[in-house]
Amino acid sequence: MSFLFGSRSSKTFKPKKNIPEGSHQYELLKHAEATLGSGNLRQAVMLPEGEDLNEWIAVNTVDFFNQINMLYGTITEFCTEASCSVMSAGPRYEYHWADGTNIKKPIKCSAPKYIDYLMTWVQDQLDDETLFPSKIGVPFPKNFMSVAKTILKRLFRVYAHIYHQHFDSVMQLQEEAHLNTSFKHFIFFVQEFNLIDRRELAPLQELIEKLGSKDR
Prior knowledge:
Blueprint (H helix, E strand, L loop, with lengths): L23 H13 L4 H4 L8 H23 L11 E2 L5 E2 L15 H17 L16 H29 L3 H17 L12 H10 L2
Antiparallel strand pairs: 1-2
């Protein structure tokens, strides 16, 4: 949640996606912020009683986009074509970009280029009222869950890249507590609703297990 970040992190990579004040989704976001403040993340990610699962996932997906946007915004000067010529998460995992419409065949590109493509693509999905309806009573489309899963799978890759390639910079900026809290919230959320395949989480498996065991 945005309250985790200090003023230095106000530089975002892409414009922040706002949830309209006064809307039901805004109320849900406020509920999420309040439960997060309690410190029990496992409980904070659970579907609030009587709420629609799609709407809960939509609100949280927007929030994770904003969080990652801020986190990546703090380290963009260290993530360059020269330092990160491929989009990787350690030596064993490399990502090639394709979005199925503009770029159909996966292309190898630098991390800053890949993350730019990725965040722009996510932004386009979030701004699409047919996919992420913000008005009360407008139903979510049948393919909403599969789109949300793809968004979260791709957002995970930004966390994985930051942890593997830029953790030193994060520590220099004293942002590691923000990064860890944000990632822990993200992981508990996707685990609660089974939103990302285990294989996709492999680049950060050790960290995920460590975060989970601390909470038992």
